[in-house]
C-alpha cells in the first residue's frame, strides 16, 4: 500500500493530534450534557454540518449514524444504541434527523445486486441468500418519502416496549444536507402531552 493510503494518513494525523495535545479542547465525559440522543444518517455531507447546524458541540449529545436514520428492528443495533443512551447514559429525549436527497431513497434490489456482482460477489451467493429467506427488497429498507420515513422511525422508537411507558419525548426532523436547514416533522413534547 502506498504511504498516502487513507489508513496511513489517519495514523500520521493521529500522531500529530496526540503529540500536539489537540485532544485537550475535546475533553468531556460519557454522559450527554443536553441529555439527548440523536439518530441520524451516515451521509458524508452531515459529518460536521449536522452538529454545527443544530448548535451541538462535543460532549452534549449521543449521536448514532445509520444509513437512512431508520430503525429497522426493535431489537436491532440502532435501537440497542438508543436504549443504552436512554437507560444507561442519561439521555432523556430522542431526536431523529433524516435528510433530503438520502441514498436510501434509491436503494433498489436490482441496483444493489449489480453493485455486489461488480465487487466480485458471485450471482450464486446472491441467489443462495435469497433462497435462504433473505428478502433483499425488504432488508434494504428503501424509502420513498423522507417525511413518512421519519414519522415511522419516531413511532417505532416511541412505542418500543422498553421506552413507551417512560414518557421519553421522541422528535422527528429533516435536514437539508446543503444548507443545514431543519424542518420539524414531529414535536415529541406535544406528542407526549397527556
Ligand atoms: Zn442518508
UniProtKB/TrEMBL annotation:
InterPro entries with a match to the protein in the record: Carbonic_anhydrase (IPR001765), Carbonic_anhydrase_sf (IPR036874)
Pfam family, one: Pro_CA
Top-level EC class: lyase
Keywords: Metal-binding, Zinc
CDD domains documented for this protein: beta_CA_cladeD (cd03379)
Gene3D superfamilies linked: Carbonic anhydrase
EC number(s) given by UniProt: 4.2.1.1
Domain of life: Bacteria
Homology family: Belongs to the beta-class carbonic anhydrase family.
Name of the protein in its database record: carbonic anhydrase
Amino acid at each position: 500500500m502506498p504511504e498516502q493510503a487513507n489508513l496511513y494518513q489517519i495514523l500520521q494525523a493521529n500522531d500529530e493530534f496526540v503529540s500536539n495535545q489537540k485532544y485537550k479542547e475535546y475533553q468531556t465525559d460519557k454522559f450527554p450534557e443536553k441529555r439527548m440522543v440523536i439518530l441520524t444518517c451516515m451521509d458524508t455531507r452531515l459529518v460536521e454540518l449536522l452538529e454545527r447546524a443544530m448548535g451541538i458541540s462535543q460532549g452534549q449529545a449521543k449521536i448514532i449514524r445509520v444509513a437512512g436514520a431508520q430503525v429497522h428492528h426493535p431489537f436491532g443495533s440502532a435501537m440497542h444504541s438508543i436504549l443504552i443512551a436512554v437507560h444507561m447514559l442519561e439521555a432523556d429525549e430522542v431526536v431523529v434527523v433524516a435528510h433530503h436527497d438520502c441514498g436510501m431513497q434509491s436503494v433498489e434490489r436490482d441496483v444493489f445486486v449489480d453493485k455486489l456482482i461488480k465487487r466480485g460477489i458471485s450471482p450464486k451467493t446472491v441467489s443462495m441468500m435469497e433462497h435462504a429467506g433473505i428478502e433483499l427488497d425488504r432488508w434494504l429498507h428503501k424509502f420513498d418519502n423522507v417525511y413518512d420515513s421519519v414519522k415511522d422511525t419516531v413511532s417505532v422508537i416511541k412505542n418500543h416496549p422498553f421506552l413507551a411507558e417512560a414518557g421519553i419525548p421522541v422528535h422527528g426532523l429533516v435536514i437539508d444536507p446543503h444548507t443545514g436547514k431543519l424542518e420539524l416533522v414531529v414535536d415529541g413534547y406535544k406528542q407526549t402531552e397527556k
